[in-house]
Amino acid sequence: MQPAGHLRRSQMTRVIHLVLLLAVIHQLLGSEVMQRPFPGDPPGWALLLHEYVGLGSLAVVGLFWLWTLLRRRETRLSRLVPWLSIARTRDVFADLAWQLNRLAHLRPPADDDGALASAVHGLGLLAVTAMAVTGTVTWCDHGALAAHYALDLHKLIANLVWAYLIGHAGLAVLHHLFGSDIFSRMFWTRR
């Protein structure tokens, strides 16, 4: 399998990605300091901030999905969510095998926009979407059984988002250390 190359990111993609990154970091870190109030007590400032930034995050992630459908010459939705196509799923596993072969020969993983990278980005976007949706369900219907299950799922997915964020950022730093211009392609920084 050959590398897919680098796609040029639009200004809109870069802005939405940055805002979503900041929102996710805020939400994950904020969840570590907030406390649920006892019944009848008012919520603390950290919980209120988490709830309102969470609602904003739902809007941002919704905008990201919409932009993914509308944008041109960037990663298509079918590459972000390849699991509904046998051919695209095969491409993901072929790209994974190619990346593992590079590692086996002590070469760094490619930092291109291959099938594997696109699918991983899609999984991250799905996880963040699930976080925003379950958080919103909890916020809308505090006392209902659905809200209780949504909150449990919200907490479970938060662990996956932590792992994704750490792994995603860690790999970006590794690519940067290997000489990639990955940060300049995503965040306007110079190489």
Plain-language structure description:
Helix 2 (45-70) packs across helix 5 (115-140) and helix 4 packs across helix 5 (115-140). This protein is mainly alpha-helical and 191 residues long. It has seven helices and no strands. The chain is elongated, with a radius of gyration of 19 Å. Helices cover 71% and strands 0% of the residues. The chain has helices at 11-31, 45-70, 77-80, 86-104, 115-140, 145-177, 182-187. It has a single domain, classed as Transmembrane di-heme cytochromes, Chain C (Fumarate Reductase Cytochrome B subunit).
Domain module tally? 1
- Say which CATH homologous superfamily is assigned: Transmembrane di-heme cytochromes, Chain C
Q: What's the CATH class label?
A: Mainly Alpha
Structural class: mainly alpha
Might you state the CATH topology name? Answer: Fumarate Reductase Cytochrome B subunit
Largest sheet at a glance? none
User: How many separate helices?
Assistant: 7
What is the CATH architecture annotation? Up-down Bundle
Q: How much is the radius of gyration in Å?
A: 19 Å
Number of strands: 0
Work out the helicity level. over 70%
The overall average pLDDT, rounded, is 88
What percent strand?
Answer: under 5%
Query: Regions with pLDDT < 50 over 5+ consecutive residues?
Result: none
How far is the N terminus from the C terminus? 27 Å
Gross morphology = elongated
